[in-house]
Amino acid sequence: MSLSNEKVVELLEMELQALKREGVCSLPISRDSILSLKNLLSELDESDNIFTSLKQSSIGCNEVYKNPMTTKQTLPSNPKVILPEGGKLEKYEWLKHKVLNCEECKKHVRPGKKIVFGIGNVDADILFCGEAPGADEETLGEPFVGRAGQLLTKIILAMGVSRNDVYIANIMNWRPEMPTTVGNRPPTQEEMEFCLPYLLAQIEIVQPKVIIALGATAVSGLLGHDPTRRMRDVRGKWATVANTPLMVTFHPSYLLRNNTKAAKRTVWEDMLEVMKRLNMAISEKQQNYFL
Ligand code: URA
Q1: 186 CB under 6 A from ligand 1?
Q2: What pTM, to 2 d.p., does this model score?
Q3: Atom of ligand 1 minimally distant from the CA of 148
Q4: How far is the CA of 134 from the centre of ligand 1 (A)?
Q5: In CATH terms, is domain 88-287 a member of 3.40.50.410?
Q6: How many CA atoms lie within 13 A of 95 on its CB side?
Q7: Which of 42, 47, 65, 139 is deepest in the core (most CB within 10 A)?
């Protein structure tokens, strides 16, 4: 099967965006590959917007991807969320109902697919924050249920807790639209800002002792866009969001692509830091995972 140049570039762009989201800032590329890429790009129609950003090489590591499909749209101002009086569960159900009925969110959801709201224990010590729902998540209406989610579940179990003990949320409540049905793209800054009040309200309800940001997009969503921020500088370090300690680590999909002991150990060391901060018991076996 031979692919058109457009398709090749589209797939390449999706792959690069996925790597960038996971915190990869640079890739080794041979001279021959650069020449082939230049030839490929020069054959494409200049007016084809979809590829313009790639052709101009304008996507810096921490820049938010500006998909022409969505950058022209203007989202309404941020939703105002004032939680009602009551217990955590009541507040959670109130907020979930509000988000699942959010008119703007509904507009962006493909027919037959779902808005995705956070899930888990409202009394959790740990709140994991990812980026945005993917295909599996928008089908089931639950965060982290696809391949990356299965890996996240393994990480949680390795920490000696279960998915029911933690809370799992995303920066975004809908799957960012794409020109194709396959592949994902990171949310735009505008999209992240629109959904942020919903995430902050979940943090306010759960009041976790630690938030774990999974990947560069989660960091940008939680801490704000900063073009000078590099994953290699912030990963494994503590920051603060909503008066809560924030640990930054790689997204599980980074581990799916970099299935090495070293990458797993890096993420695991971040989890050990979280466990230490929470005074969780750490066995010798846990201490030595992936060594
Ligand atoms: N990746 C995310 O960031 N969130 C999900 O819910 C699934 C995959």
Answers
A1: no
A2: 0.79
A3: 8
A4: 6
A5: no
A6: 31
A7: 65
| Cβ 170 under 6 angstroms from ligand 1 | yes
Q: Is 187 in the pocket of ligand 1 (CB under 6 A)?
A: no
Walk along the chain (291 residues) and give the pLDDT tens digit of each residue: 566 666 676 677 777 776 666 556 566 676 667 667 766 666 554 333 334 334 333 334 444 444 444 455 689 999 999 999 999 999 999 999 999 999 999 999 999 999 999 999 999 999 999 999 999 999 999 999 999 999 999 999 999 999 999 999 999 999 999 877 778 899 999 999 999 999 999 999 999 999 999 999 999 999 999 999 999 999 999 999 999 999 999 999 999 999 999 999 999 999 999 999 999 999 999 999 999
Characterize 93-120 residue by residue with b for buried, 16 or more Cβ atoms within 10 angstroms of its Cβ, and e for exposed: ebbbebbeebeebeebbeeebbbbbbbb
Nearest to 175 by CA among 257, 67, 56: 67
Residues of the chain with CATH 3.40.470.10: 88-287
* 171 Cα: distance to centroid of ligand 1 (angstroms): 9
Give 30 Cα–ligand 1 centroid separation in angstroms: 32
